[in-house]
Amino acid sequence: MNTNVQLDFQKSLNFIKKKEYKNALETLLNLKKKNSRNPNVLFYLGLIYAETNNIEKSIFFYEQLLKDQPNSLNALYNLAGVKQFLGEIKPAKEIYLKLKELDKDSVKPFYGLFTLDPEYLSEKDYEIIKDIREKKMPSLYDFGVINFLLSKKEKKKKNIINEFELLKSFHTSVFDSKYQYNMSARFYYNQIINNNYDKIKFINNYENTSKSDFMPIFIVGLPRSGSTLIESILKSSKENIKSLGECNIINASVLEQIGPKIYNKDFNIKNFQFEIDQDEFKKRALFRYSQINIDDNPNITFIDKSLENIFNVEIIINSFPNAKFLYTYRNFYDSVFSIYQSMLPELAWTNSIKDILDYMDSSMKAMNYFKKKYSQNILEINLEEFSQSAEQFTKKIYDFCNLTWNNKSLEFYKRKDLFTKTLSFSQVRSPVKSYNSDKYKDYHYLINDYKKSYDWLK
Q: N or C: where does the chain have the smaller number of CB atoms within 10 Å of the terminal CB?
């Protein structure tokens, strides 16, 4: 690359780091005009289009890159992920099998195959995984992933003690692999937002920078509580709503303001006031949404499935009064174990059973507070009840969100363009199933000692 091209390419990477995908896309497309076969440009175009849910273009650019560099590991992993989240299991499996041969000392192909279908891992595969752990000196994160996969083998054998020992090691390794970041996130949730969501002071609320018809739908709650199912149903409405997924835009816009205060070495929590400059927040949030919602005619109604917004309800409503919140939840016991047994490395509070219970307790207190204050903006969805009366509940959700219900609203699983970047990608490829109340029954005893600390566990 010449100097100008290098500078433009670096600029695009900086945009991507800040999730300014619209700006990055403009820069990269200009670079592509100068060199249509540049593998770095093709790779990041594939990445941006995947992040903004333009799957057809994402696949096109990854495949263009692979024509010239068929063994590019990064492109193969990303293409496998795109195919996987689109529900194209067979092509994704073929790519992961190829990666097993190309990336022999890595656990990543095995994890990819497992997420497609646990049955894709054979006894021989598990032996190779153990060998990688013992002889290949994996990174701290990969060491955690290995123990995560081995825990699934123990789970299949119903060996709960061994399973949970491996899960404990998995969580510790993955947490420690990004220790400083995770400690900062834990501090924010435990000490800042948990103690201040009902005490936020709004300043500079003079100019209405949001559109009067701006009507975002926020899905909030806990992971593994049916949020992806509800998202898929909403995306199948007549209005063709776009989901921005777990974009974390609200949190980013909040932390942009208070981060320099709370992460300052001289920070004194006793003197802290949670203060939000409302006009600046609206301006920055709208800008960030525009960088992800990059269609030619972006919808004024879209879905934000950043579940942590359960603590940001008041901040959002103060900026966007037409916002709707769908709060998904399930049996508390099932929630704990479903989260603990999942790969959720980006969530610092999933590190232990106690951390999960503390976060659940905080989120329920927050939601109870917001339900009383903003009842007209919030609809609760109990996963067990939903699975028993899906059509009735779907009509209620559509009515609440001002959407047009039709008989195909529950046929989301038939869509070939349904793209879901979560662990539930396979579950939304079939009709709504009855809730399995016995799935985690054998694990319930593991939190009996916590009942005295949380009334809702009783």
A: C
